[in-house]
Queue: 2 jobs
Job 1
Amino acid sequence: MILLKKPGMQGIMQLRYFEPDHVKVLDEAISVSEDVISDYFSISSNYWVRNPYEVKTLREISSWEYPGEAFAHLVRYGKDITQKQSGRDSRKFYRICLHDHNILDQTSGGKRERLLPFLIYVITHEFVHIMRFSRYFCHPEFNDRNVEEQKVHLVTQDILTPVKVRGLDTVLDRFLPHSQLNKN
């Protein structure tokens, strides 16, 4: 276990990692999320071949891939548009980096009945980012990140509202304020 002192906090915070049972729940959440994203955006399984991704837990990511406070974040790998020499060399790759300890803190230590719906929300949220980046050329470095996050929360809410998974309604309620930050 790694001990981490968060900036501005008194004392030391303990980082906790997903256990094998948590990883099984994560695999289930990824499967559900990929299905609902594919249905919502009407994409084929071939889409994921053209836009590959991987999900990494805290134990698997590099220290520079860890920003701290979030439940997860997305890293896009590939060549910058200014370095492209042809269409073939622009292959992009997405890595969803999970912050196990933050997720475990929100799910009573990762109990399955709370972890599954929470991970479905988190993974679906990151998949929505992938869809927006790959299909709509939406990049937060060019746009306001807070506005982008609000839009992604709105779409995630829309995608997951009809999904029938026990506890998901509670998670949707938890994230609802994030989709309404700038509404008048």
Job 2
Amino acid sequence: IFCFAQDPLRFATEVAKFEDLAEQFPKENRIVFTGSSSIRLWTDFKSYFPNHNVINTGFGGSETSDLIHYKEELILNFEPRQVFIYEGDNDINAGETGLDVYLELVLLALDLIDEGVEQIVIISPKPSIARWHLKEEYEALNEVLATSAQLSERIIFADVWTPMLNKDGSLKEDLFQEDDLHMNKKGYDIWIKVISPLLLD
């Protein structure tokens, strides 16, 4: 039973756009990237993975409970071999506890494994200028999310938080767009170094 922080139906129109998307991709070795705006705005991400059958079903502003609500439309309908999930960023900002986010993400990951997905990669919430005041909440969430990989050999945790910081623990502030929240190319280039080695061949 999940407590929806907001009404997931607010994304119904956006999610409907993915209805026939699967037909545009080969059926073999599909890899779905999904989650909130850091995925949705990664518009050129296919160019980063030219040798993989990657699909972007990100929907901006989403929280984990929204992804759970739309898991059929955004994940399972694609019959993916591997799924990368980016959620938690908006959840913490909306006041949800790290424990709640952790439980939602782990239950979603285990559910997808039961549905036949070979591997789930949980991408850590990223740091940002706009939400730096919530630094401790995000770090606590990432700490427990890292333990999710111990629950199943088919769950991987990808830490993009740490490489977006300077050695002294301060934030690399040149990684963001003018809104101080979403990343520019420099930010995604850091993500690539973490994520590329994790894609299944």
